[in-house]
Design a protein that fits this description.
Blueprint lengths: L4 E4 L9 H16 L3 E6 L9 H14 L5 E5 L4 H13 L3 E4 L3 H13 L28 E4 L6 E6 L3 E6 L7 E3 L7 H11 L4 E5 L6 H11 L5 E5 L2 E2 L15 H6 L4 H10 L12 H7 L10 E2 L2 H14 L2 H14 L10 H8 L6 H8 L10 H7 L2 H15 L5 H15 L3 H13 L7 H7 L2 H9 L2
Parallel strand pairs: 1-2, 2-3, 9-10, 11-12
Antiparallel strand pairs: 4-5, 5-8, 6-7
Bound molecules: glutamic acid.
Length: 463
């Protein structure tokens, strides 16, 4: 087999969509698996909706996910001359033609077809043919270029995901390949690009499966080698409907902001529509070594926010504490908290990461070390009783000279318990409520030793 070359071809009209990220991931993993190349192409021919800002967001998300490409970004709008040249070549060979139908005419055509109960579509009135006389060229109408689709035969391909697909050419009308302003349409640009970029395998969303017969006919008309196609099923939201912006986060950026780790995201996305036995947690390297294009599922994938959170939690637990510290610090600062350089952030992460499924949850916990806390009224009323407050005052004193380790803070607590004849929970729970703003935490002696001594003592003195 020739060198495997795959590509991802996002349209820069927003953030990197989860569906596109998943296709990018499959394309990337497939190329890496085969020691091939992965190309990034920016499909920016929808000039009104494409923005540079979106390109940058997409590049940033690809980078964040670690989907490094070998070539690109290649911008379609910088290749207009090439598409024009190919369109002219097709015209010269009688495989494409100018069509001067106005939008009104096309509407009337469709209405007429509907009224007669016929299938709607372009009726081929400008398509040249032996002995056929074409309409007179109207003045002031800029033509489109249409592809003269074969009229006979079937388009058949063996889809890497869906198996054999066959469409009769009678079902397909003559596609517009160049608009009146000279900009190519998606189906045409994609073929010229996949040909020029020597793409061997196209993975893309299911929504393009109806475009593929046109594209295959175009490849053939150009005498270009046909890539293999794999149409990946759509992702359904938790509610069973197509994943959509209106019903929740659909961009990679949104998950990055919500505190997901890139490797967790990659792992979860890979499992949406692909499997390797029962494996749920696997590394990037494992994915690359396993991803050979098989085991892609035909049925729609179901987005499962709870599962993604679980996967993320697994990665957070396993993550290096210094790395977590570096990731959580800006999240604390974003909350307006100052994190002193001497703060033992890695140790804090080590203590709390087991109970966090996102970096935001981790930041939520660690915030208590750097800024004021406020327990619920119910917790305060229940736990900050008079005797408890008195014990907490004593503890402030005992902590003043304590060794600042879990053993040291535990010894200070024990001295207060002994002096006041209290049991551990009678001190530990009010202490958590006052110092941490909640009644449950990991081992309290460990939590205390992570506080800045001054901050903790001030909190206790306020009892
Ligand atoms: N720009 C198209 C999209 O974002 C690319 C489809 C393809 O991969 O051919 O859906």
């Amino acid at each position: 087999m020739s060198q495997v070359r795959t590509r991802i071809a996002p349209s820069p009209t927003g953030f990197l969509h989860l569906g596109t990220a998943r296709t990018a991931l499959f394309s990337w993993a497939y190329a890496r698996h085969h020691g091939g190349q992965f190309v990034l192409r920016i499909e920016d021919t929808d000039v009104a909706r494409s923005t540079q800002d979106s390109v940058e967001q997409i590049l940033a998300s690809m980078h964040w996910l670690g989907l490094e490409y070998d070539e690109g970004p290649i911008y379609q709008m910088q290749r207009l001359e090439r598409y024009q040249a190919v369109a002219q070549q097709l015209i010269a060979e009688g495989k494409a033609y100018y069509c001067y139908c106005t939008p009104e005419e096309l509407d009337a055509m469709r209405e007429g077809q509907k009224a007669r109960g016929e299938k709607t579509g372009y009726d081929g009135r400008w398509r040249p043919g032996p002995g056929k006389s074409l309409p007179a060229i109207p003045v002031g109408v800029k033509p489109v270029i249409r592809f003269a689709n074969p009229k006979e035969g079937d388009v058949v391909w063996n889809d890497l995901v869906k198996g054999t697909i066959s469409i009769n050419n009678r079902e397909i009308d003559d596609l517009i390949i160049v608009r009146p302003d000279g900009v190519p349409t998606y189906n045409f640009a994609v073929v010229v690009d996949d040909w020029d970029m020597q793409i061997t395998h196209v993975f893309r969303g299911d929504e393009h499966v109806n475009n593929t017969p046109w594209q295959i006919n175009l490849f053939r008309a150009l005498g270009a080698p046909l890539p293999a196609f794999g149409h990946v099923p759509i992702i359904l939201g938790d509610d069973g409907l197509k994943l959509s912006k209106r019903r929740g986060a659909v961009s990679v950026t949104a998950y990055e902001e919500a505190g997901y780790l890139p490797e967790a995201m990659l792992n979860y996305l890979a499992r949406l529509g692909w499997s390797h036995g029962d494996d749920e947690i696997f590394s990037r390297e494992q994915l690359v070594s396993w991803f050979d294009g098989s085991h892609l599922t035909k049925s729609p994938a179901q987005w499962d926010a709870a599962k993604l959170e679980w996967v993320n939690g697994q990665y957070i637990k396993a993550a290096d504490d210094a790395r977590l510290a570096a990731l959580v610090k800006p999240r604390l600062e974003k909350r307006g908290l100052a994190v002193p350089a001497a703060a033992p952030l890695p140790a804090m992460c080590a203590l709390f990461k087991d109970r966090c499924s996102t970096l935001e949850a981790l930041a939520e916990w660690l915030a208590m070390f750097f800024g004021p806390v406020q327990a619920s009224e119910a917790d305060q009323a229940q736990h900050l009783t008079e005797p408890a407050r008195a014990a907490l005052q004593d503890l402030a004193v005992a902590l003043k000279d304590a060794e600042w380790t879990p053993a040291g803070t535990a010894a200070a607590m024990k001295s207060v318990l002994a002096a006041r004849g209290l049991k551990m929970p009678q001190l530990a729970i009010p202490l958590r409520v006052l110092a941490c703003g909640r009644s449950q935490t990991p081992a309290i002696d460990q939590v205390l030793a992570l506080f800045d001594r001054e901050i903790l003592m001030t909190r206790l003195q306020s009892a």
